[in-house]
Design brief:
Blueprint: E1 5-12, H1 18-26, H2 41-47, E2 53-56, H3 58-61, E3 77-82, H4 94-104, E4 110-115, H5 120-130, E5 136-142, H6 144-149, E6 152-154, H7 156-163, E7 166-170, H8 181-186, E8 189-190, H9 199-211, H10 219-227, H11 231-240, H12 243-259, H13 264-283, E9 284-286, H14 292-300, H15 306-349, H16 356-363, H17 369-398, H18 400-413, H19 422-427, H20 432-438, H21 445-458, H22 462-472, H23 477-501, H24 521-556, H25 558-573, H26 580-589, H27 591-600, H28 607-620, H29 624-663
Parallel strand pairs: 1-3, 1-4, 4-5, 5-7
Antiparallel strand pairs: 2-3, 5-8, 6-9
Helix pairs in contact: 5-13, 9-10, 9-12, 10-11, 15-17, 15-22, 17-22, 17-24, 17-27, 20-29, 21-23, 21-29, 22-27, 22-28, 23-28, 26-27, 27-28, 28-29
């Protein structure tokens, strides 16, 4: 008996709970991908799945609980693909391109459209675009509990009647309503909505449908994307039709373009958005609800009240991550558990090893694999990193970050960016490598270069930031204010200079802000755990490698040679002890590894030298992954220019900070 497989794409706007639904449905099951899905592999690794696909067995889900596949019958299995958040299919954004290309390539047999009832209009605009592809659709109204608490009620029966598709209410964070989804997918139907377009667009769509009748996908879907000038649509046209058809399509598209005063993509989007608004008004009722989230959300983006709120968010984050995570938790784990208990126990347990060189390689206090590799990563970096990821995930899930984009838009415009640039810059505090990749969402080359420069120049990634907080903990609060204030000022100054010097256009900033919501703690905690585990998987081998390398260089005398070679700069310009060389050497391998080394040898550094070292390692030495991605994203010429500039500036900045502190007798103690 042969069983077909149908692939359903989970589609929806950003922050509507798509991935939470996917994870809840997936449970602990993992399946290898047999069809690659561009743009989602990175997120797959973050989640720990071998693919973003989940196979639902039809025998369990086809007819519902208690029923099974009858003998001799063959029903399709369902494969779910969790796509990235998309605001519209008519957009050249990376996430939108990923979802649209899956549809254009004919790899999708149906869609699970996830919607936020508090902003149903956005989801309905996606639905109106999906209709052109003539695919079965099921809609999940997620976070219904939060919508109702704010006085927003959706008439699901009327919505289903108007659209012709099944609509299910879910609360993904609690698992409510999800059990109904698999059966709905098997009986999913095509929407009966018929979007209305301006006359010139409708006529062109009809003409193109006839010409493209032999298309490998629904001709109207391909026609709509061609009118919107989506690059993948033109590629499909070229690969599947002759030159005569291509010329005729270009003639029709050109005719529409000439008839409209604005790009066809804008006209189509506005038309569908207006229709989505009319439909929303027919199915949504607003009553008196809980007003505090809305009022707080508006205040968070207000020019006056937004800054104090941002200051409070920053202060709470410092107390939670810096004081609690880097202080109390690190003391309990690194000092009391690892150094006082596990290290002596491990030395005793391995005392039978007959070779002294092996014992030294394992337990040397300066470069041993156990104290400076294993325990440093697990006892010092991991705890602080966990609390940073947790706090960052809470901000993500609450909907605060888009409000920060609005708040900082005016400042970022002076730096050649706009509010959209907040995302890659904020992600820089999580992972600079990831942030460099997300600069693709910026609309112009100028913006992408400026954002990349600023990320390399002054953004300590989460692991480095975690160790910095540990290193700064014994010093006065003015030490932290100095180092982070210096980084903030240099980002602002060099951003404005780059805006003046780098030629190029500025893009407009359009952002739809999701409602402020109470974070779902368990999904947030799960996401935090995954990110922490992924860090350990990636970083622990590098920590061990760096420790073994430093041990080898020390025993060969190479480390002393490097110290002598770099002494004019390290000691003369920066005013640092010889141990700074091993700190910088490890920083080249991985930033937080160098910072952890600084904590290990800090007895050789005074407070000013600690601060100078942290500044230099943040600016002067991006990690290898960031360097590789920088070259990949910006090209050899731009990447080389950025790295040369930050290297020279890093040494000069460290020298200036050292001179200021020594001249004015600033000690930070």
């Amino acid at each position: 008996m042969t069983v077909d497989v149908r692939q359903f794409l989970i589609l929806g706007n950003v922050k509507v709970g798509k991935t939470t639904i996917f994870e809840r449905l997936a449970g602990n099951r993992k399946f290898d991908a047999d069809v690659s899905t561009r743009g989602v592999a990175l997120r797959a690794a973050e989640l720990g799945y071998s693919s973003r696909k989940l196979l639902f067995k039809a025998k369990a889900f086809f007819t519902g609980k208690g029923e099974s596949r009858k003998a001799g019958q063959s029903y399709p299995d369902i494969v779910l693909i969790d796509g990235p958040g998309a605001s519209s299919l008519i957009s050249e954004g990376e996430d939108e391109t990923c979802c649209r290309d899956l549809l254009l390539e004919g790899k999708i047999d149906g869609l699970l459209l996830v919607a936020d009832p508090r902003n149903l209009r956005r989801a309905l605009m996606l639905l109106l675009q999906i209709v052109a592809f003539d695919l079965p659709v099921v809609m999940a109204l997620n976070m219904e509990d939060e919508a109702q608490s704010q006085g927003i009620f959706v008439d699901r029966e009327e919505l289903s009647k108007q659209t012709g598709i099944d609509v299910v209410a879910t609360v993904a964070s609690e698992g409510h309503g999800l059990h109904r989804i698999p059966a709905m997918l098997h009986k999913a139907e095509r929407s009966k909505i018929k979007p209305k377009y301006p006359v010139v667009v409708e006529e062109a769509l009809n003409d193109l449908e006839k010409i493209l009748s032999a298309a490998p996908i629904r001709p109207r879907g391909l026609a709509l994307m061609l009118l919107a000038d989506m690059s993948k649509a033109w590629e499909i046209l070229k690969n599947n039709f002759g030159r005569g058809v291509e010329r005729e399509v270009k003639r029709i598209v050109s005719k529409v373009s000439d008839a409209l005063s604005r790009p066809a993509s804008v006209v189509i989007t506005e038309s569908l958005y207006d229709q989505a608004g009319v439909l929303t008004s027919q199915v949504v009722q607003k009553k008196e609800g809980y007003k505090l989230p809305g009022a707080l959300g508006r205040a968070a983006e207000h020019p006056l009240w937004g800054l104090p709120i941002a200051a409070v968010v920053l202060a709470v984050g410092y107390l939670f991550v810096g004081e609690f995570g880097a202080g109390m938790v690190v003391d309990a784990i690194d000092v009391h558990l690892f150094k006082e208990l596990l290290l002596p126990f491990t030395e005793h347990a391995l005392s039978f090893i007959p070779w002294q060189i092996v014992k030294d390689a394992l337990f040397d206090p300066d470069f041993g694999l156990v104290p400076t590799g294993l325990f440093l990563a697990l006892g010092l970096v991991m705890p602080v990193l966990f609390f940073f990821y947790l706090y960052f995930a809470l901000l993500e899930d609450s909907g605060y970050l888009p409000r920060l984009s609005v708040l900082l838009d005016k400042i970022l415009r002076k730096m050649g960016l706009n509010g959209k640039g907040v995302l890659p810059l904020v992600l820089g505090f999580s992972c600079v490598t990831m942030a460099l990749l997300t600069t693709r969402i910026l609309d112009t080359k100028k913006e992408r270069i400026i954002a990349s420069l600023l990320l390399i120049l002054g953004f300590p990634c989460a692991p480095l930031l975690a160790v910095m907080l540990v290193v700064l903990k014994p010093l006065s609060i003015y030490a932290a204010l100095t180092i982070f204030g210096w980084l903030a000022v240099q980002v602002l100054v060099f951003g404005m200079l780059a805006n003046k010097l780098i030629k190029g256009e500025k893009a407009e900033f359009i952002l739809e802000i999701p409602p402020l919501r109470r974070p779902s703690f368990m999904p947030v905690l799960a996401r935090t755990g995954r990110r922490t585990v992924l860090f350990i998987r990636e970083a622990l081998p590098i920590f061990l490698f760096a420790s073994l390398l430093m041990f080898t260089l020390d025993r060969l005398g190479t480390l002393n040679w490097l110290e002598d070679l770099s002494r004019p700069v390290v000691h003369g310009v920066l005013g640092l002890p010889d141990q700074a060389v091993q700190v910088f050497f490890k920083t080249f391998i991985r930033r937080e590894n160098g910072a952890a080394e600084l904590d290990l040898v800090r007895s050789h550094f005074d407070s000013v030298q600690v601060l100078v070292t942290l500044l230099v390692m943040t600016v002067f030495t991006p990690c290898m992954n960031s360097t590789i991605v920088l070259f990949k994203e910006q090209g050899i010429k731009v990447a080389t220019a950025i790295l040369v500039f930050v290297s020279i500036y890093g040494i000069l900045a460290g020298g200036v900070l050292n001179w200021i502190c020594r001249t004015f007798s600033i000690t930070f103690t």
